[in-house]
Amino acid sequence: MPSFLLFVFLNLAVFLVAQAEITVDCGKNSVSVRWIDANTQVDPSLLRLGDCPPTRVSVRPQGSEAVFYAEFWACNIRRLVTTNDITFETEVTSPTLSKTTPVYYPVSCAYERPEDWAPPLYDPLIFHTHGQGDLAFRISLMKDDFSGVATTSTFSLGSTIPIAASVTQQNHQPLIVLLDECLASTTPELGPDSRVYPLITNKGCLLDSKSTNSRFLPRTQLSEIRLSLQAFKFAIGEDVYLHCRLVAWDPRDLDGGKKACQYDRASSRWVLVDDPSQSSLCSCCDTNCQGRKKRGITADSLDLNSVLGPLVIIEN
């Protein structure tokens, strides 16, 4: 959140949900939630704040505890902007269990909106999002030479839009990051009536490379993938948001569902960017790609959705 965002209160309140006690602490850029259940009715490790697991869990004879800490851009925390206020909303939930009433507790932090406020959650140049299992994903608009984050989010029709996506890992085996899907939309949230322009589809196939100069660039490291998009005609002059799904995977276990493919118009075939000798994995790009059931790392840390924008494409 920008430093000029006026913080108007520190909300510290204690509530009872069923037999549990919840403390919500709204900070300037983040929220902390503490869940204490004296009767140990819920496994605290199963609780979620938005889509994030607890930062800390403890189970003792006197009861269980889950503590969450999340910055406002993480955990799928929603932002509601009105004329006078900015409110960040999410909830503490638990899985639906047959013998236990599921947990649902709303969490909200409200702030006064300054007149010169600009959206921090959809920063035009960079978007961070955290996953589970010590993985942190990042996607950014970059300078043309990828030497740093871009200084503009406005592009001329036909020019290059450089994008870098990466994953930072702590305790995992070496992982390769992939862009499973990307599409452009005029809205920061997708709905049934959203206008969309598909860029990457079918589990890693750069569809836009069939008709434009869009392409993946050679990797400098497994944990980063670089994409050079040709600025497209979709929604000229309007705010455009890129909705992408980032995937971290075992680089030794690529298949039809985990890959990075682009179309080589010179040879009229799909090519696997990371190993052209295995381009047969891309043969499904014009039909329906399916991956194997095998999973090389924990299922809940494989992929995350991110939104990059708004960016604007203008005619020359």
TrEMBL record:
<dbReference type="GO" id="GO:0007339">
    <property type="term" value="P:binding of sperm to zona pellucida"/>
</dbReference>
<dbReference type="InterPro" id="IPR001507">
    <property type="entry name" value="ZP_dom"/>
</dbReference>
<dbReference type="InterPro" id="IPR042235">
    <property type="entry name" value="ZP-C_dom"/>
</dbReference>
<dbReference type="InterPro" id="IPR055355">
    <property type="entry name" value="ZP-C"/>
</dbReference>
<keyword id="KW-1015">Disulfide bond</keyword>
<dbReference type="GO" id="GO:0031012">
    <property type="term" value="C:extracellular matrix"/>
</dbReference>
<dbReference type="GO" id="GO:0032190">
    <property type="term" value="F:acrosin binding"/>
</dbReference>
<dbReference type="GO" id="GO:2000344">
    <property type="term" value="P:positive regulation of acrosome reaction"/>
</dbReference>
<keyword id="KW-0732">Signal</keyword>
<feature type="domain" description="ZP">
    <location>
        <begin position="25"/>
        <end position="268"/>
    </location>
</feature>
<dbReference type="GO" id="GO:0035803">
    <property type="term" value="P:egg coat formation"/>
</dbReference>
<protein>
    <recommendedName>
        <fullName>ZP domain-containing protein</fullName>
    </recommendedName>
</protein>
<dbReference type="Pfam" id="PF00100">
    <property type="entry name" value="Zona_pellucida"/>
</dbReference>
<feature type="signal peptide">
    <location>
        <begin position="1"/>
        <end position="20"/>
    </location>
</feature>
